[in-house]
Each structure stands twice: as C-alpha cells, then as structure tokens.
C-alpha cells in the first residue's frame, strides 16, 4: 500500500523506495512548518532510498537569507540519499543552492526539468546501490 499525505499546496508520497514531494502555488518561508514536519516524518519512518522534489508548480516569495536557510536545511535532511529536484528555468539559481548544500555534505543531487529524468537518475543509483 502506498503511503501519502497531502494538504493545500503540497503532496508527499512514497513510490517504491522514493519519497516524492510535489509543491505548488504561492509559497512563503512561514508555510514550511507542516510540509517540513511531514517530510521529516516520512524520512524517519520509511525505507527511503531516493528523494524527488517537484517544485515546478510553486512560486516562492523567499528572501536571499530564507533561500540560504532552506538550502542548508535540505542539505542536512537529504544528503544521505540521492535527491532530484524538478524545477522551471526561472528557479535554477535557487535550486542550485540546494544542490550545492547536498553535495557539500557528501550527498548526490540532480537539478532537472522532468519527472522521467529525475526518476531514471534515482532508479539507476538505487539499483546499483540497494543499501542506500
């Protein structure tokens, strides 16, 4: 049975061994409390071997400081498993900050434009390294 959680503006689900989180609509840093807690709960209570964020439908109103804080937080949370982030071209600079923070901590991250390329990348990595 698939595990899933959703509320307005985001959805989290487990697809195989991959935690997928989709975010949409206007987002501010104050809105991260419920999604953040849910995301951490899924990470702590499931056998996740990959993370996929789809933020193409989201429009963020973050300051540079808020983006830096979010990037560091995601770097700490996601560095232990391959993490793919699907975004729009106008989100590239912000997503690059997150990828950098994951990689600084020894993790693997990919910024991409499609779900298929994200899943192919994660599936290839998790098939060759099944212990995560």
Automatic annotation (TrEMBL):
Which named protein is this?
Answer: STAS/SEC14 domain-containing protein
Organism the protein comes from: Maricaulis maris (strain MCS10) (Caulobacter maris)
């Amino acid at each position: 049975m698939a595990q899933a959680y959703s509320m307005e503006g985001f959805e989290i689900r487990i697809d195989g061994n991959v935690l997928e989180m989709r975010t949409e609509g206007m987002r501010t840093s104050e809105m991260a409390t419920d999604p953040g807690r849910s995301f951490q709960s899924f990470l702590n209570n499931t056998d996740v071997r990959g993370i996929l964020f789809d933020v193409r439908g989201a429009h963020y109103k973050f300051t540079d400081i808020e983006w830096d804080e979010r990037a560091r937080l995601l770097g700490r949370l996601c560095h232990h498993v391959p993490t793919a982030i699907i975004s729009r071209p106008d989100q590239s600079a912000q997503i690059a900050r997150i990828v950098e923070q994951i990689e600084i901590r020894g993790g693997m991250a990919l910024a991409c434009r499609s779900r298929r390329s994200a899943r192919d990348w994660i599936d290839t990595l998790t098939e060759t390294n099944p212990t995560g």
